[in-house]
Design a protein that fits this description.
157 residues; 74% helix
Length: 157
């Protein structure tokens, strides 16, 4: 039953997803992954749905998978592209900045990297994490205090 649905709707989903992603290969991967998940985890549920309900289910799942993919890509780019720090200041030689960011509590390290390394605004970060921009700014302030204390060899709580 799901096989026939796949044959009937595959091209429609890939076309829609290509419009969403602007990447035909990614679109095809997302559609295939959605059908694999459906077969492995939701087969009984899907068989109880009407044709229109199945289509709606797949549109929602594919869109959510794409959102997850975007989030994953942003986190990867933040952690992979940390620049070399310290410049000409000899007191900062030998500091593993990425390791230092990893010691920041909660999402402070991610927020700090996104704001000061990637150039996102606090509003953009807030939208990305579904939190107010003021909360992001408070976390960034706390991150700066933690980093200052860590660089001085102190513990900031």
């Amino acid at each position: 039953m799901l096989e026939q649905f796949y044959k009937d709707c595959r091209n429609e989903f890939i076309g829609w997803c290509t419009t969403l992603t602007h990447d035909p290969l990614l679109a095809e991967d997302l559609v295939h992954e959605a059908f694999l998940r459906a077969m492995e985890q939701h087969l009984a549920t899907l068989e109880s749905l009407s044709y229109i309900q199945k289509k709606a289910w797949f549109y929602r799942v594919i869109k959510n998978m794409y959102i997850d993919w975007i989030r994953h890509q942003r986190f990867e780019s933040v952690s992979e592209e940390l620049p070399v720090y310290g410049g000409n200041a000899p007191e900062y030689d030998g500091i593993d900045w990425e390791l230092l960011f990893d010691t920041l509590p909660g999402k402070e390290g991610v927020f700090f990297a996104m704001r000061y390394l990637e150039g996102y605004t606090s509003t953009e970060i807030g939208n990305f994490f579904h939190i107010p921009a003021g909360t992001v700014r408070a976390q960034l302030s706390s991150a700066r205090k933690h980093l200052k204390a860590a660089l001085k060899g102190e513990n900031y709580v």
